[in-house]
Design brief:
This protein has helices at about 15-30, 35-40, 45-55, 55-80, 105-130, 135-145, and strands at about 85-90, 95-100. Helices cover about 65% and strands about 10% of the residues.
């Protein structure tokens, strides 16, 4: 990554190493571009211009965002598995807690995980058949559309 990048308007450089690090640190924490821009004191336009112009920055941004989503996924899995304690009130005062589990959250996690695993299945099937993963997926879509013409 270069030390600085020219702003989209061609004015003074806006991206110091400190600003890049600040932006990437906040992206890793929140996966929120607006917050990362506020933290680095740059505009969204400047951030996206640098992302488009600097492949190393783009990779670092993607890695930061993936890391933030890994953390979020871990917390969501923990909540689905372990539940969340909620206070129980009586007479306006906390008298205990109740552990709540969110089955809808667990179902969504399982569906997302299954979709990810199915993508891996396409890669494995591609290895066995000699087709590319894309060809395997396209063949699956053709079979699905043939079996379910009303959904095609």
């Amino acid at each position: 990554m270069s030390e600085t990048a020219i702003s989209p308007t061609g004015a003074e450089p806006v991206w110091s190493t400190q600003r890049r690090n600040s932006f990437l640190r906040e992206m890793r924490r929140s996966a929120n571009v607006s917050r990362a821009c506020d933290e680095a004191k740059v505009t969204r336009g400047e951030a996206f211009a640098l992302r488009a112009a600097d492949p190393e920055f783009r990779v670092a941004w993607d890695e930061a965002e993936c890391g933030a989503f890994d953390d979020l996924e871990e917390e969501v899995l923990r909540r689905a598995r372990d539940g969340v304690d909620k206070p129980v009130y009586f007479g306006g005062k906390v008298c205990g807690t109740s552990r709540l589990y969110n089955d809808a959250l667990a179902v969504e996690i399982l569906k997302a995980r299954r979709e990810r695993l199915n993508g891996r299945d396409a890669e494995s099937e591609a290895d066995r058949s000699g087709q590319s993963p894309l060809e395997v997926i396209e063949e699956r879509l053709r079979r699905f559309e043939a079996e379910h013409p009303e959904k095609g």
